[in-house]
Amino acid sequence: MSDNAKSNKNDAVEEADKANLNDRRTFLKWGGAGIAALAIGGTSQTTVFGQGQLTINLGTGDIGIMNFAFLLEQLEADFYTRVVANNFYAGATAEERQILTDLRDHEIIHREFFKAFLGANGIPQLPAFDFSLVNFNSRDSVLTNSQNLEDTGVSAYNGAGQAIVSPEILALAGKIVSVEGRHAAAIRDLRIPRNGFFAPHP
């Protein structure tokens, strides 16, 4: 690959990442899909915007952090469940269908894990989120919002990790964020294929 072609590829990735950062800054302002966290360590409440506003008591300390993660996993599971139930989007390849189905299954497992782990300390299972700003028939809309979800999840886990006291909970969060990181990488590969980014094997 020529130097010019490599430069163009790198520019495309840089521009896509800049656009995605701007999307992530507004992601938490989505209608019902958005979660505005007032703070993880300093408050025990978060607001979920949907049909009206719902204020939820997350609890404090490690329980509050786990409940916030539970809330994010509910959001992600709902999103991917809708993607699959919609029969994906026009032109979805077999690889894309498999990846998005796997992500749905992983997020449901995460959601159910938090539900069982938290038990009586857990927040309730929320009603369906409002994804009216997402066009589930559009590949670009689905994959862009999927990347926003995964990047936001990874950032939330990494940011909360330093506040977790329990070694057990920290280890669990570390395992889950590693999966979320792989999700984010998989979606990026679908949006901007890696072909041509790396030198071929000799």
Could you please describe the fold and organization of this structure?
The protein is mainly α and 202 residues long. The protein has a single domain, classed as Ferritin. It has helices spanning 3-27, 61-85, 94-118, 139-161, 167-191; strands at 35-37, 45-50, 52-57. A hairpin with a 7-residue loop joins β1 (35-37) and β2 (45-50). The chain is globular and about 45 Å long. Residues 5-10 and 16-43 have low confidence and may be disordered.
Descriptive tags:
202 residues, Ferritin, three-stranded antiparallel beta sheet, 5 helices
Q: Quick one: overall form? A: globular
Mean pLDDT: 77
**Count of helical stretches:** 5
Write out the CATH superfamily name: Ferritin, core subunit, four-helix bundle
Question: How much of the sequence is in beta strands?
Answer: 5-15%
Our measurement of the CA-to-CA distance between the termini, rounded to an integer number of angstroms, reads 14 Å
- Highest CATH level, the class: Mainly Alpha
Biggest sheet record: 3 strands, antiparallel
The succession of helices and strands, N to C, reads HEEEHHHH
As laid out across the biggest beta sheet, the strand order is 1-2-3
CATH architecture: Up-down Bundle
The amount of helix comes to 55-70%
